[in-house]
Amino acid sequence: MPDLTEKLYSALVDDDEDHGQGDLPESMLREVPGNAARLVGGFTLQKLGDRIADPKTVLTWMLTGLGAPGFVIAMLVPIRESGSLLPQAALVPLVRRFGIRSRIWAAGALGQGLAVAAIGLAGVTLNGLGAGLAVLVALAWFALSRAVSSITAKDVLGKTIPRGERGKLTGIAASVAGLAAVGAGLLLLAFAKELDPAALGLLVAGASLLWVAAGAVFLTVDENRSDVHETHPATSLRDSLKVFREDQTFRRFVMARTLLLVTALSPPFVVTLSAAVSESGISGVGPFVVATGVAGLVASPIWGRFADRSSRLVMSLAAGSGGVVILAYLGLRLAGLDSSSWLGPVTYLVLAVAHAGARMGRKTYVVDLGTGDQRTRYVAVSNTLIGAILLLVGLGGALLTGVGPQWTLVALALAGLIGAIVAARLPEIHD
Fold this sequence. Notes:
Layout: H1 3-12, H2 26-29, H3 32-52, H4 55-65, H5 70-85, H6 88-95, H7 102-125, H8 128-160, H9 166-190, H10 197-218, H11 233-246, H12 248-259, H13 262-265, H14 267-277, H15 285-337, H16 343-369, H17 372-399, H18 405-424
Helix pairs in contact: 1-3, 3-9, 3-10, 4-5, 4-10, 4-14, 5-8, 5-17, 6-8, 6-11, 6-17, 7-8, 7-10, 8-17, 9-15, 9-16, 11-17, 12-17, 12-18, 14-16, 14-18, 15-16, 15-18
């Protein structure tokens, strides 16, 4: 392994503590620095694409400018999130037929890139309900492709990076992507006068190349071949449900993760409320993209290091802070600050920081909770259950669009506060 790669890995990730490297075979320990560089590269490209084609900010603002109805905008995040989670338990038999899981991740990345290109094309060529429906269909395609990648990403991470260093690694990727997202947001601000929905569509279409590049990087990951299993889908689904029923720790983790949805579902409502009072039109999306980038740049590395020490406390802090900031936001709006140009972006920034912690905490917890195919099953089952819940919540939110998003935010805030308690009571996975 090149000395430069080893030095960078030692400086950024491995702080010479006992990180439980015994959970990797000796042959893989030599490949850790090189694999870490490849994983950071692939994850960074994917995360940057996520920032540019973010349903919570860019797609919400783009469809608002195109005149899409409110129920379409309310379904963006639920379809994006639930669609990438719901199919995962059913996909486990397919994944277990392949010994090299990084190739599956790369195939999923290609599918995501094609879907994002279709979303961008819809933003350039369509308007109103037609644009909204086209984006939802392409977003569902994106989500299914993301499910294929998601179910293998944590498995590849667990096979190539030692326990105790995984959170820091994903934090570095999020930080680099955050820096790039800040630059993208500043460019949006700089060209605000020329910005319209079609321009956002072109930006999104261009971002599709990031997923293609990420897939190419992942194909170079050096991993041990997993055991190959031929399992009937019905048997796999039955075994997956058995895991949820019989594993108490895993069941409590799923409960905590459900309540962590406060940080995923609340930001679009903040963006919608801000867009309704914004005087800057479509260009108002810039501050929100910057806020997302700053959160990834600053918060993700900190959350990642903290998650390697106590991922349950990271989840607890993230859920609690999400609930508190939503209540504070609603209180300031009632106090007459709803037209302030800073209230929406600042609230979004804090929620993005909390969401970074929620993602880092839950990912680290579930990767450390299991090994091998058991880890794959944990990831798939938890994601499928959360996907079903997300879809139900999204449908409820779409039905409540006529009432106003404020009451939805109140319910999400309460869920976050309860989630902080549930996550704090989870057992530690490692010392």
